[in-house]
Known about the structure:
The structure holds 2 protein chains of 2 kinds. Chain A contains no helices and 12 strands. Chain A has strands at 3-5, 10-14, 19-21, 24-26, 32-38, 44-50, 56-58, 64-68, 73-78, 87-94, 102-104, 108-113. In chain A, the strands form 3 sheets. In chain A, strands 2, 5, 6, 10, 11 and 12 form a 6-stranded mixed β-sheet that branches. In chain A, strands 3-9-8-7 form a 4-stranded antiparallel β-sheet, with no helix packed on it. In chain B, the strands form 2 sheets. In chain B, strands 2, 4, 5, 6, 9, 10 and 11 form a 7-stranded mixed β-sheet that branches. Chain B has a 4-stranded antiparallel β-sheet with strand order 1-3-8-7, with no helix packed on it. Chain B is globular and about 40 Å long.
Amino acid sequence: AQSVTQPDIHITVSEGASLELRCNYSYGATPYLFWYVQSPGQGLQLLLKYFSGDTLVQGIKGFEAEFKRSQSSFNLRKPSVHWSDAAEYFCAVGARKGYSTLTFGKGTMLLVSP
Amino acid sequence: DSGVTQTPKHLITATGQRVTLRCSPRSGDLSVYWYQQSLDQGLQFLIQYYNGEERAKGNILERFSAQQFPDLHSELNLSSLELGDSALYFCASSGDSLGELFFGEGSRLTVL
């Protein structure tokens, strides 16, 4: 069965500083990988996704993530965090088959300090 | 706006009661997913429908049921409610086979 681990429950970053959120997955082959963001009182919004090809993927809002097969990781990065980035971030994994379900990590809450 | 609509946004009810949550997927999306989000369990997959047929089942309790109608909207029925059923219930839809889900804003259920 597939699973996702986000080891950091909370992370605090100063505004303007760089950010890296960790995600490790367990899956028997190369999965589809996703990062979603959830602002308070909102649904989940897709930040970026990896299906195949270039292992460094670009997303919305200046985020990027790198797929590392050898480490079973898909870490999310942003070079300079803005106060509006404060939210909860979820990594998810899906099987490489049609209309598969996504398995989500427990999320990392990002706090941005002035 | 994801295009996925969920109603009601908030619902307060008592233990033992039954509620129905409704979801309208994005226009043209054939697949609907239900997830439960709680503080202790995180986002848990409940059930998936594709074009009216149940496609996958996750950690859905026997007291819960769902269906997808011919117009592709879906309903999640929760019965004999317990305090522990208090959670945010998300509906998501997907229109292609690559797994990207589009989420509604959720229905927050509070059981007193």
